[in-house]
Automatic annotation (TrEMBL):
Protein name as catalogued: Uncharacterized protein
Organism superkingdom: Eukaryota
Organism of derivation: Chlamydomonas eustigma
Lineage: Eukaryota, Viridiplantae, Chlorophyta, core chlorophytes, Chlorophyceae
Pfam family, one: Glyco_hydro_72
Family affiliation: Belongs to the glycosyl hydrolase 72 family.
Alphabetical list of SUPFAM superfamilies matching this protein: (Trans)glycosidases
Gene Ontology molecular function terms on file: 1,3-beta-glucanosyltransferase activity
Keywords assigned by UniProt, alphabetized: Disulfide bond, Glycoprotein, Signal
GO biological process: cell wall (1->3)-beta-D-glucan biosynthetic process
GO CC terms: plasma membrane
Amino acid sequence: MGTDPVVRTILHQTSYMACSATNSLTDGVDIIGINVYNWCHVADTFVTSGYQSILQQFINSNMNTPFIFSEYGCNTQDFASPYPWTSNYRTWVQVPCLFSPSQMASYFSGGVAYTLVMAAGQKNAADSASSFGLVATTAGGNTAPGQPPFYELPSYSNLQSQYLTVSMTQPGKPLIGAPTRAPSVCPTLTDADMLTWFEAYKLSNGSAKTGPDPTTGQPYWNSTYAQAATYLQLGTTPPSQILV
């Protein structure tokens, strides 16, 4: 994730999850996580990695829900590390940027390094460099003879060292980078918005009607939030006309 169209799509979808039509914090989700695998070069910076662009787009969204990187850490390009995972391993130099109040933590609330335990069988995989794991396990078939059953790889030590450089104390903030909590204003929901949403989640085959209901004279999904929000938030069954 990181290209502008992808970020715009995520922001469009999450804007409905983070808003309230009644100005109530209980209407929206508590926190939103996005997976970001940028920072794939040793020489990357806040700007060249794409982090700055991601940050600015989220700031411009004016959403007040805390955001985190639910997965971060690149394992391609400069950090494509094949078995035994002792060369080209991840240095995690993006960690200070992610937790810096003047950079990502000005709006984001930290993140989760991906991932702790290596997937089983990566040692003998055709592309052993595709693993994100920081710890190789004997049970997963990824350790060498003589290594402990839970073997911490160099990438694990690097991540640990980077975390030790971060100050986690920011008085007055419930989460690092969390903006002032207040529900966002819900965007107008149109028939086109709802059809896009339904088709994305395989709830419509693309031929659903968008015109007025011949019985009521009203759109199948009105643009004043009510019917659409009821389905989105409560999971109630949509009108049968939308599921043609």
